[in-house]
Amino acid sequence: MVTIKNASAVANMKLAGEVTYNALAAVKEAVRPGVSTWELDEIAYETIIKAGAIPSFKGYGGFPGTICASIDGEVVHGIPKKKRILKEGQIISIDCGAIVNGYHGDSAFTVPVGQVDDEVYKLIKRTEESFWYAIKFAKDGARLHDVSAAVQRYVEQFGYGVVRELCGHGIGREMHEDPEVPNYGTPGTGMRLREGMTIAVEPMITLGDRAVYQHDDGWTVSTKDGKPASHYEHTILITKNDPIILTIPEGKEGISA
Ligand code: MG
Ligand code: MG
Q1: Are 147 and 201 in contact (CB under 8 A)?
Q2: 194: which of 62, 86, 145, 164 is 20 to 30 A away, CA to CA?
Q3: Per the confidence metrics, is the pTM higher than 0.70?
Q4: Averaged pLDDT of the chain
């Protein structure tokens, strides 16, 4: 069921979005060679708890972390580990969510660890750009797959792959609500977007082939060819005009590589 959020729900989602943003910003500050994904997880956890919020990933379906930390060819859902130490030249995707007053925020970014190859850096930046391009199509009266198709159109011009097995989603009292928000599709199809809908738009883009597999840990999803993948996500509110980004506090810049 797709829910339309009233002003009070939106206000709470902004609060959840701000906590999520602050946790991600703190993690981004800490990304460097030598740090473990476990340490990054603790930073996010502390930030969320100190804000009086709830880390939404922790315990979700049994997931052990506050963040998903996915390195290089890992697309999403990497489990934070003490022995997983970042190395120069890698890229890391961090996904995080928080709950305030029963409402969710969900956001993700990918950044380099130190210096990375130019083609990998471009993959990250163009994944971010695909989000900003696509959400221009996310407004009251538009069709959902106008947004999906825009992500696909933007990244496929560079020969990148769009992961099909995972997609964005409605969000609100639950982290994952209807509708599913794919990163590919046919313009003019899908449900009609309405003011007050809140969705997480999250391109998951591969440098090589788009095929992925799930690890034996039951969580981590990686590219089959081992080539890098990038992820970028915000929770947005549909309006009659451009959407409002709920996971970027007013007056702040979006987290970017
Ligand atoms: Mg997420
Ligand atoms: Mg999400």
Answers
A1: yes
A2: 164
A3: yes
A4: 98
